[in-house]
Amino acid sequence: MARMKFLCDSDRCIECNACVTACKNEHEVPWGINRRRVVTINDGKAGERSISMACMHCTDAPCAAVCPTSCFYTTADAIVLHDKDTCIGCGYCFYACPFGAPQYPRVGNFGTRGKMDKCTYCAGGPQADNVAAEYTQYGANRIAEGKLPICAEMCSTKALLAGDGEMIATIYRERVQKRGYGAGAWGWRTAYKETLSV
Amino acid sequence: MLIKRSEGKAAKQRLAQAYAGLSSGGLDRRAFLRQAGFAGAGLAALGTLAPSRVQASGAATGVADHSRPIQRIKNICTHCSVGCTVTAEVQNGVWVGQEPTWASPINRGTHCAKGAAVRELVHGDRRLKYPMKLVGGQWQRISWDVAYAEIAEKLMKVRAESGPDSVFWLGSAKFSNEGAYLYRKFAAFWGTNNVDHQARICHSTTVAGVANTWGYGAQTNSYNDIRNSKTMIIMGGNPAEAHPVSLQHLLSGKERNRANMIVIDPRFTRTAAHATEYVRIRPGTDIPVIWGMLHHIFANGWEDKEFIRQRVYGMDEIRAEVAKWTPAEVERVTGVPGEQLKKVAQTFATEKPATLIWCMGATQKTVGTANVRAFSILLLATGNVGADGTGANIFRGHCNVQGATDFGLDVGTLPAYYGLEEGAWRHWGRVWGVPFENLRDRFENVQMMGAPGIPTTRYFDAATLPKDQIQQRDRLKAMMVFGHGGNTVTRMPEAVKGLEAMELLVVADPHPTTFAVLSGRRDNTYLLPICTQFECDGSRTASNRSVQWGHKIVNPIFESKTDYEVMYRLAGALDAAAEKSGQAIRFQQDMFKPYEIKDGAPTAESILREINRGSLSTGYTGQSPERLKLHMEHQDKFDLVTLRGREGTPVANEFYGMPWPCWGPAEWKHPGSHILYNTNLHVKDGGGTFRPRFGTERNGVTLLAEGSWSKGSEIQDGYPEFTTAVLKRLGWYDELTAEEKAWIEGNGGTFSWATDLSFGVMRVAMGHGCVPYGNGKARAVAWNLPDPVPVHREPIYTPRLDLLAQYPTLPDRRGFRLPHLGQSVQARSNQVARDFPIILTSGRLVEYEGGGEETRSNKWLAELQQDMFVEINPGDAAERNIRDGQWVWVSGPENNARTRVKALVTERVGKGVAFMPFHFAGWFMGTDQRSKYPQGTDPIVLGESVNAVTTYGYDPVTFMQETKVTLCQIRAA
User: Fold this and answer.
1) For residue B799, what pLDDT band results from cuts at 50, 70 and 90?
2) CA-CA to B552 of 20 to 30 Å: which in A125, B40, B72, B600?
3) Signal peptide span per the entry (chain B) (predicted)?
4) Domain check: are B58 and B138 in the same one?
5) Are B584 and B447 in a shared domain?
């Protein structure tokens, strides 16, 4: 079975934010919620690197481990999703997540946040595929249509790769060999606890 | 970039508030549609709402209904010049989704932030919804009919009182090719050369510089071809933010060839972050850097001697100038260490093929044309022109700035660079089917017909200067602005006065633009809602000269109209106004008679056919609507690197989008020219030579190529352009068919390849394997320019007073009907440099484009960049006690100008340099102008414009404005 993953090639990422607006466009994500964002380190200095960050759909997802209502579930493609009808907006997952993926629609008194929202790997939610109710709560379900997440498909420099872990590892390995030097595939090991043999 | 660091809860709330509160006033599209759907009585009032639009209201949630069919329509992104294909999913006439276009060889499915968010443009919450006018300072809704009639009447009044030259026709690089051409034709029929567009303020100096060097003013190779380069220098450009999808090709090339990627820039840009070498220079010292490189190249014999001998004129004069630029002098002027520059020079000259990429950092200078010339000379000296992986890869700005330039939205030429000479008017008169006399009588007089007009960088001067300083009958009195921002030109405080002096201001745009709010105008100001190119058919030319056809995705939203329709109807309204006021002139009949009129507007296809008939000089003749549509349909059949159509397909052997020149009528099936001046190919297969445009001999030295010719040429040496006389001399005249001869002899008998509408001269020349425009040498020395050999000249406002005497700017002069001050303004540096010690430069952000009105209204983009800012070096910030993120005043040395912006303290800029992005407007000198926008059309994000503090300074050849080097002071607010 395929294991769906994201990999951001930091040698290619130019912080153009296409992944961010493609996501907003595809799912009509409201202002203030960022399922995906681009992070830049060493900004303006030698060694500046950018990486596109969203839910990494971890193998052993810390968000799921801490969720008091067990709203998280992992699909057969190893995509980590959650059920908004069960979510109570407690925010534990936000503290557990190493990538800052969980987002909340409200900032209110007494810590009320509303239902958590995060990257779905363009795989929708627990409802039937591609029905209006699914779109309203979770956004489009591209995986059901046989497509990959829109952020990776539209990445301007093809830095952000999405797909079966083995497939994207192969693409990345070929790139590294062509370049003749290694590069940091940022976040991979944190998410998947595997060593990358390149 | 970057004021998006977390400011915690407070910031989030503030922004959410700004967004929610401010959008409440207007009618958003969904509310609009809902009203239209529910209330039958409302329909009549809304008037022009098409039936399909009403049906669409049911599905207006923006979500695709997967149980029903979805239509896919391809168009081209309306932002930068890369030309990414956009695939829209349309259901019930509503654009419900955007899919990657894997087939396009240019973007291969990808987009940048702007391209991935274009669907929002046609949601259009903040779009201008119906025509409006200012009445006593208040915006009022009016109907299209009233708008046309009132505008036409006022235009005809100005015409009667002040002459046709008192109306300024400002066009757009966002027009389709057909729209741009039609607008230029409109100005010609109005009787003025005061017609311009954004190319003036982005790459006019590129066009002038490279056309004066080797013949045509365009990118020589393509984005895709950069995949072949072994060395690329990016100088004065930041494509990672301005042309993000181009980086796909650059970075792939870098990986594939282990290529050197060298960035030369005053700023450590996002592009520099991916470079193998970064060279920091002082802003405004490009020529010394290039001469410094050539110094090492000539000293070490790294130049391409054979290439220079065969194909370059005047390199010895360059050697003499370059000899002055010793490594020590270069370091003194530019700040670049000699050893680093030597390494860069060696890499560029020896690790070939090498390409030089530039953008507005090179062009928006008082020495813009000279910069471009110097860049071209570096390419010539190293033999890096006219082959795979080489060339001047000039990345242009807007989606159709190349096409709009080609079609003469320019004060100095008719479409396709024919110029303004009588011969040019006669040529276009023949194409348009109107006699020369008809055109002449529309102008003030025959002299004004040949006199270059007033450029967009100076329109406000032409409205306010004393009459005797302006070389036309009267000042500018009326201004028609189609698709142009008001914050893109320097010296905005003076623009305010100019706008206030105009009797009439008309803004035709999807958004109100800065023009609507900048000045204190209270009346005689009209806003006309124009749809985007997504709501309209037409072709556009990408930076690499590939022409792509965009299919209309949805009907124009709200009451907006296409450019074609507005020009057609306005011409009709002008006729009525002329009749009413007893003026003899008429417009609509003569101008539009060649076109097919459908649904009250000329069709894009029929306009393109007229372009194909007349644009021989640039090879815009083979790209018929049918061929362009075929290419869009078969995008997947083209090679990624060579752009050639694969064998056995309907587009076999053709280059994608038939980059001009694409010779002959469409039936000749010319493939287009992927790489200009490429002698390795036959002319019929896209080959070419340098174009001899400046005679055949200079001071006893030939200007024709020596021992170099394009593949398969029967003349195996240089030759001049083909004319009927040349054909006779060669004994080839009788190869013309009887029909061709009949046309030529029936129309006067002497024609060149570019004016022979029978295509006979071109056909015969190409039959012998010759390039119709000739085979000449590129000119290292351009004797018709103010500086035939480019020389360093300090910016008008410079902190280096010690260099002023040695490298002064040009003396005061005149040009384009106006005075052009040089040294008299530069002398002010001596007084102001002490109080304004920081160099101010400007540039682009990835999220926004141009004046930014459209992109700042797009909620998906606006969220990413919410504040105007200034980048300031930590050293300068510490001296001024400025912390990151705090408000500061940036003030300039003219007009007591000052702007209130946020500080971004970063090492991205060097000490003594500050950077501001140029996309912001809506605040002016510390005042928020949001309330001046018509309700509901205010962009989400407003901010101070950098051009409020930019200063005087113009390139002598094109009047390009200086935006990249001026002085400023920064103080905590």
Assistant:
1) very high
2) B40
3) none
4) no
5) yes
